[in-house]
Amino acid sequence: MLIGIVGKPSTGKSTFFKAATLINVEIASYPFTTIKPNHGTGFVRVECVDKEFNKQCNPRTGYCEKGIRYVPVEIIDVAGLVPGAYEGKGLGNQFLNDLNRADVLIHVIDISGSANEKGELDKPGSYDPANDVRFLEIELDMWYLGVLKKGWNKLSRKMNQDKEVQISEQLAIQLDVFGVKPELIDDVLEELKIPKLDPTKWTEEQLKQIATELRKRTKPILIACNKIDIPGAHENYERLKKEFPNYYFKPCSAESELALREAAKKTWIKYNPGDAVFEIINKDMNEKQIKGLEFIKKNVLEKYKTTGVQTTLDDSVFDFLKYIAIFPGGIKGLGDKNGNILPDVFLMKPGSTVMDFANKIHTDLAKGLLYAYDVRTKMKIKGEYRLKNRDVIEIVSSAK
Ligand SMILES: Nc1nc2c(ncn2[C@@H]2O[C@H](COP(=O)(O)OP(=O)(O)O)[C@@H](O)[C@H]2O)c(=O)[nH]1
Ligand SMILES: [Mg+2]
User: Fold this and answer.
1) With bands split at pLDDT 50, 70 and 90, how would you rate the model's confidence at 32?
2) Which domains can be identified in the chain, with CATH numbers?
């Protein structure tokens, strides 16, 4: 699972990334601070199953707080994209390629309208963030189109000579960097009603439609409306929701989330990422620090119930990609050989089966798969059983 943080410069991508990972990265009020992508581990929240078994879990990775399991996910923060990125503007091609493997994108926009199209900061309200919503999609779609068309002439000639060449297979090879499979191409062609028989006759417009549809399916976008703490931002947020009714918008203040997580790390406050409240536990903070926290409470948490960072990450994995969280466990006990209770949680694609789960743990386990147990019901289930979110599964295999 790889979540890509994207957008033009100065919208707060690195702040979002740092808040999510607590990795020290450069944050600055001038464009192109980030050139090399930042890679790190963030977390998504899953309701832990341990209390159903009256147990306390001991996570090997991530952590569990108040019954909520924070499961690791990979996050990448790429350099800011500017219009024309797909043609190489502002090193755009290179930055786009950093996103090849991303499963889902969080588009961080400056909803206060302070950053112009190049990411230069000005007064709030000086720029319309609606432009950014359109611009990013165009860049991504054109990027896909570019890859799709690379070698198109050669491919056309090949298909003219050999009628047996399967277009979906050929395109999938070309689009392999995005993880596009032949079945996905078949699906898209069917939906767009584009005949597979003679691809050499496809028009430029049809190629564009194909690129756009493949991009949508392999790089879905959530929009984090960042800097919601700035006056005037809320009005922009409400307006954009009306202007783009089918889009996902989440009010967000990455700077607030970062401040809260850092304060929690210093044990000044108790705060669990994603929560609507925090509690001050260290009374020795100075006046400025207390004022800062009060600002966040009043202008972000009380208004929106979350800073938006954690919720957007959760929604990207569970609402958008519809992933499910699976807990390995045994019917005779939930511990591993070291006595750790429910040490792991696996994030799996929708539709995953017991066999897929066994494969994810170890290919040998899958090869020798006999059956599995649904640990809650203690029922035996087969390899082809489709897993549900928060299933607890024991694999029984002839492999040691
Ligand atoms: N008011 C406000 N400023 C923010 C927020 N997030 C980031 N910023 C500021 O926006 C500027 C650009 O941030 P940065 O994370 O470097 O942006 P990037 O270029 O998109 O990576 C910095 O001055 C940040 O402090 C936010 O939630 N609220
Ligand atoms: Mg940055």
Assistant:
1) low
2) 2-142+220-262+306-318 (3.40.50.300), 148-211 (1.10.8.470), 324-397 (3.10.20.30)
